[in-house]
Specification:
71% helix; 146 residues; 5 helices
């Protein structure tokens, strides 16, 4: 695509979209939002980049290998938080065990942040992986045969 206005607009919108995803991520325990919504918003920034610059350029910025590692890391954050609370003597994802002496439920806050971070990373990398697979496949039928 050789549209200068679209390329400039995409470059201008990319960072604010990522920033909004981080806002949704870190304010998800106080209000609407959280890991799933933030992950999808984060993936949308790269999907917009693909629409303007092409899949090859986007894969240079965010390669599939990095997405695979991010999927595993996100799952490990989620499951690791649950296992850590079990090792501390509580239930799986029993966040109170993270900081049991806190009078302000700090353990709940830390636990939710860790779990939501894991969900956000997993969702963003999974959404981009699915998008990469759909955009990278060859069509079964030629365009003229439709």
């Amino acid at each position: 695509m050789d549209h200068l206005i679209l390329k400039v607009t995409t470059k201008l919108l990319f960072a604010p979209i990522i920033l909004f995803a981080l806002y949704v991520q870190f304010h998800g325990d106080y209000g609407p939002g959280g890991g799933f919504q933030a992950g999808v918003i984060f993936a949308v920034a790269f999907i917009l980049h693909t629409f303007c610059f092409g899949i090859a350029e986007t894969k240079k910025v965010m390669p599939q290998k990095a997405l695979t590692i991010a999927m595993v890391m996100g799952l490990m954050f989620y499951a690791g938080t649950g296992v850590a609370t079990m090792l501390l003597g509580g239930n799986f994802l029993g966040y109170t065990e993270i900081d049991p002496e806190s009078t302000h439920h700090a353990g709940q806050h830390y636990g939710i942040l860790l779990v939501e971070w894991g969900v956000g990373v997993t969702v963003a990398s999974t959404m981009l992986t699915i998008f990469y697979h759909f955009t990278g496949r060859e069509p079964d039928i030629d365009q003229e045969d439709w």
